Amino acid sequence: MYNLARQLLFKLSPETSHELSLDLIGAGGRLGVNRLLCKAPASLPVRVMGLDFPNPVGLAAGLDKNGEAICGLSQLGFGFIEVGTVTPRPQPGNPKPRIFRLPEAEAIINRMGFNNNGVDALLARIDAARFDGVLGINIGKNFDTPVERAEDDYLLCLDKVYHHASYVTVNVSSPNTPGLRSLQFGDSLKHLLDALRLRREDLEIEHGKRVPLAIKIAPDMSDEETALVGEAVFQAGMDAVIATNTTLGRDGVAGLAHADEAGGLSGAPVRDKSTHTVKVLADTLGGRLPIIAVGGITEGRHAAEKIKAGASLVQLYSGFIYKGPALIRESVDAIAALRSSKE
C-alpha cells in the first residue's frame, strides 16, 4: 500500500508531497485509523537518558517541524517522536525549491533553513495533541540572529519548551543556517553548553523535573574534532549526543540529477559516514553518555548496525520517506535480533 502511495506522492514536488503526507498522517491519527493500517512493531523497551522508550526507533527532527502530526506519526509505531527544529520567531526558511529527491540513491538534499511557525505555535499544537509518549523538541536559532548572540535564542527556546518536552535537542549542526556549525567547536561550544546547563538547573527547580538535553552534531568533522566535541558535551553535563545531521559531502551521488544542489544530503549515502561518527563517539565516551544514531537507515539491518556501533537509540527520516512505516517494524525487529544474539 505504501509503495503505491509513494508512487503517487513522488509525482508531486517534494515539498508539496511532504506537506500532503503530514496532513494525511495527522488526519489518520485524529481518526484513529493509522494503527489499523500499520502493523505495530514488537515491544522492545529501553531506558535512555532516564526516559522509558517503548522501542528504540524514533522519528528524527525535520519531518514534522511544527508538531502537526505528532499523534498520527506515533501511531505508525515510532518509539519516540522528535519535532522541530523550532526557532523563537516564525521564519519562512530559504527560497523554494529547497528539497530535491535523488531516488536512485535513496537520498534527499534539502536547504530548508529552519522554516517553521515559531515556538509559540509549536507549543499550542503540542498542547492540543495531548501526546503521552516520548517527545523530543529540537531547538535552533533564527536565521537573522547573529551567531555571537545565538545563545539568546537557544535559551529562549529552552525556557519555552522545557515543560512540554521529554527531552530537548540543541541543533548546532544544520548546514542551512549560515554560521550555525561554528557553534560545534571550541569556546563557542563550551559557552553555549555552559549556558544551557545553568539554565536547565534553574528550570529543573522551577518545574520540579529534569529534562534531558541532547546535542545534534554534523558528520563532516574529522575523528579528532568529533572526539573533542563528544568530550565537551560530556564535560558540560549534557545527556546525549545525536549523530548525525545531514552532510555537505556528495559521495555516492555524483552525476545524479540534483546532486549539485546546495544543502544537506541525507539518506543512504550518509549511512557509513554517520555510523563512523557513532563509532568515534562511542570510543571517546566509553559508555559515559548515550548516543542517538540517525543517518542512512533504509533497511532494518542498518538500524542494528548503528546499535552495534555504540548507539542506544536510532532515528529515521529519509529512509522513512522512501520505505514507509514498514521500516519502523523492520528496524525494531533487527535490533531485537541483535540484542538476542548478545544474550
From TrEMBL:
UniProt-annotated binding residues for FMN: A61, G62, L63, D64, K65, T85, N138, N171, K216, T244, G267, G296, Y317, S318
Location(s) in or outside the cell: Cell membrane
Record domain Dihydroorotate dehydrogenase catalytic: where: 44-333
Keyword Cell membrane: yes
Catalytic activity reported: (S)-dihydroorotate + a quinone = orotate + a quinol
SUPFAM superfamilies on file: FMN-linked oxidoreductases
Function according to Swiss-Prot or TrEMBL: Catalyzes the conversion of dihydroorotate to orotate with quinone as electron acceptor.
Name of the molecule in the record: Dihydroorotate dehydrogenase (quinone)
Species of origin: Stutzerimonas balearica DSM 6083
Gene behind the chain: pyrD
